[in-house]
Amino acid sequence: MYTDFPNTRYQGSKKRILDWIKECLDGIEFDTALDVFGGTGSVSYLLKSMGKKVTFNDFLLSNVISARALICNSTTKLSEKWIKEIATAEPYEGTVSRLYSGIFFTDEENKEIDKIANGIFFNPKTKLDGTKRNLALFALSQTLLMKRPFNLFHRANLNIRLRECDRKFGNKTTWERPITELMLRNLKEANNAVFSNGKRHYAHQKDALMIGAGFDLVYIDPPYCSINKKCADYQDYYSFLDGVCNYPCWTANIDMTKKNLPLQQNNHSFTNNRFEADLKELLSKHSGSIVVLSYKSPGWPSIDKLGDMIRETHREPTLHTKKINYALNRNNGDCRENLLIAMPKK
Known about the structure:
The protein has 14 helices and seven strands. By secondary structure, the protein is an alpha/beta fold. Helix 3 (61-70) packs across helix 7 (130-146) and helix 7 packs across helix 10.
């Protein structure tokens, strides 16, 4: 059933290794699970398909909305007719048209994004609430990822997409497809993923260290840090999507000093200078739970160091490792996905 999880182009998504993760978890007894850095929600979706009661958490609003559409949602679907109504709605000039010209999308696409967002939040004929709004925002967010070179928003680089040249990355055919056409495809996948396992699930937008303890199993997939100790900044990568998902309040929270016009950043854990200390605190907080630490190597801290950190709060961890290639990685020969699984000492 977890194979029904929608396709995603989110950096670090575990969708393509869910089979392997499930194999690693088979035989471990647990009923409740916390996904601390939920991201796309693919692992939470796997846990839901395994019959577990799942709590999803992520710092980004767009990811939390996706989880509410796919993890917390057990029955609700959004009619594809809604997208067809949006496609024929009156033009609307909003935040994207006014501020983001020449940054991520063409001017025509910017108008289309505004029209769709207006249709979701304001237009009385198409306005959505609750789970149906979450499904629409999920479909829109995935569509915008598909139309971006490298599927990221941390650089104002529309020119990369528009430039006429030989390409070794991306999918120009997809980039040029209408937004509503791609949204329809993504909505179909989302609707197909909706199911109930008979339990209630939760999705929170909190700092990783602010989630309470008491879960049977805690899955930890923190931001990747390279060997030079530079951590991935997901807040910068996907700020545009968080803006779309909070469209009514977007303009007031933009950092106008930067070319890509991201949202103003809030202090949060697991940044470059705090990563190791924060991971120790997180492991200590969940010392009474089974921990499953997911990490890519080579990276920082090393797998050996991570094992030492786990031993301070848990029993001897079991290491599972899998070779994997990444599209944007130049050194795939050494790349591995790792799962360190450890039981509580008590």
